[in-house]
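--- STAGE predict ---
source: upstream dedup step, 1 unique chain passed
mode: sequence only
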Amino acid sequence: MSVTKRAQRICDILIEEYGNEIATRRLPPVDELIVTILSQNTADVNTSRAFARLNEKFSNWEELLEAPDEEIEDAIRVSGFFRIKTERIKAALSEIRERVGALDLSHLEEMPLAEAKEWLTSLHGVGPKTAAIVLLFSFGRPALPVDTHVWRVTKRLGLIDGDTSREKAHELLEDIIPKSCIFSLNHNLVTHGRNICRARRPLCEQCVLRQDCDYFRSQN
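--- STAGE serialize ---
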């Protein structure tokens, strides 16, 4: 069976187990970019609190961009690494305004996907995961964010080699996974990684993918 057919089979099994999450746009792209930077190395609840505090403190992102660093740092302190995140947010917003003439990413809607990724990752502090999140959740485009769960599970399944870096995994997995699967598979791999295919002591006997899993076969 080809790796693409395996990916489709895995996608179908996980849909049966967890449901078929449909791609819906969550936030405007600049908002999604800021949220994703805030989410780095922190829990979701802290990200939400920090983003809410930014919205309470600043009436728009132009106002944030002109604000002293200390005001932003105070607002997002709950997210951790607040000085680094302040620097990354302001640098990214500044570059967007300089290139586009406004704090607007709508031009990415019609740009070829590879070019849109390249444009986003050229911004300071924006890597392939952040770019994929913006493209997937703000534009509904088939970009796959590879977080720690997606990375771990796809390596154990054998969809990518065990020594594949997370950065390289973005490129490889998007080539392997059918475009129609990307949104549901991203959601379901994260759920599966949190609940079953855990980093320590994975619950292999409860796993619906064990018959398709290289890691399970290697342990038995």
